[in-house]
Amino acid sequence: MQLRGRVAVVTGGGNGIGRALCERFHREGAEKVIVADLDLASAEAVAEAVDGDAFAVNVRDEDAIKSMVDEVVARYGRIDLFCSNAGIIAGDGEPWWVTSAPNSTWQAMWEIHVMAHVYAARACLPSMLERGEGFFLNTVSAAGLLNQVGDAAYSTTKHAAIGFAEALAITHGDDGIKVATLCPQAVATQMIGTVEEGGTAGVDGILSPEQVADAVIDGLAAERFLILPHPQVADYRALKAADYDRWLGGMRKLRRRFGNPNL
Predict the structure, then answer these.
(1) Quick one: DSSP state of residue 173?
(2) Which residues of 20-40 are buried (b: 16+ CB within 10 A; e: fewer)?
(3) How many CB atoms sit inside 10 A of residue 50's CB?
(4) Which CA distances in Å does 114 have to 23, 24, 39, 144, 252?
(5) What span, in angstroms and rounded, lies between the C-alpha atoms of 11 and 136?
(6) Running along the chain, 263 residues long, what does each successive block of 10 average in pLDDT?
(7) pLDDT of amino acid 9
(8) What is the pLDDT of residue 263?
(9) Which one of 3.40.50.720, 3.30.2280.10, 3.40.50.300, 2.130.10.10 gives the CATH number of domain 7-258?
């Protein structure tokens, strides 16, 4: 997909990767960029910069997503690209068991990292299928292919996000629907906060949101399912598939190196 002349929606578009995507899509000549964020003021600031539209959307609310989709389609006739980009991170917390995070954290991550993608597809598919074309870009994480030491809820829901994206591509690929998953390691956003050098996710360096947006443009143009801004992730994924036990041992070694990190 080329962005010129396209209508694109980006959730979590008010900052970080989402903001960088909005700005880059605008520079690529998108007809309209729709900036959706829980923080309306942030969404409006980005929308003003990219001559787009802003929506206050809680992606945990299916009705809010559907309402936005319906309004965008009514205004512009279509949505060409829907980017489910919103995400959160929390960490397992004390005493750093895999079960340490409270149920509220697990539920929030399930709703934001998985169900928000389902809600977006449910809202967009009818009009996309009628036109015989449409593209979903789901921001996942390298944790969805590998794991995130110290955050079991994040890792588990990101794995589930990959599973849903695969199902979306398998079920509707013959209907003209394209799917891509964005799977970076550490990115310089609010999500990594003050964690020194990005913690375990930063072992291969921390990318800027703009660098991630560059990778997205290349991945969309090539229509690749996996967009890997950190190319090392492909090697780690291959090692995991080749020898699961060895890979698990390597991850335990990484955990010992970093102790009980927040990331």
Answers:
(1) G
(2) bbbbbbbebebebbbbbbbeb
(3) 21
(4) 25, 25, 20, 11, 26
(5) 12
(6) 98 97 98 98 98 98 98 98 96 94 98 98 98 98 96 97 98 98 92 57 84 98 98 97 97 84 46
(7) 98
(8) 43
(9) 3.40.50.720
Instruction: Give the integer Cα–Cα distance in Å for 23 and 157.
Output: 28
Residue 160: both structure tokens together: 């589930």
**Number of other CB atoms surrounding residue 230 within 10 Å:** 23
Query: Residue 8 in contact with residue 25, Cβ under 8 Å?
Result: yes
Q: N- to C-terminal Cα distance for the chain?
A: 33
CA separation for the pair 205, 185 (Å, rounded): 8
Catalytic residue of the set 76, 154, 236, 244: 154
Cα–Cα dist 11/37, whole Å? 6
DSSP string, 103-154: HHHHHHHHIIIIIHHHHHHHHHHHHHHHHT-EEEEEE--GGGTS--TT-HHH
- Strand ranges inside the chain, DSSP E: 7-11, 32-37, 53-56, 81-84, 134-139, 177-182, 226-227
The answer to whether residue 154 is catalytic is: yes
pLDDT (0 to 100) of residue 81: 98
Distances (CA, A) of 234 to 92, 183, 184, 207, 221: 26, 10, 11, 16, 19
Q: Which two tokens stand for residue 4?
A: 């010129």
Q: Which two tokens stand for residue 222?
A: 């090539």
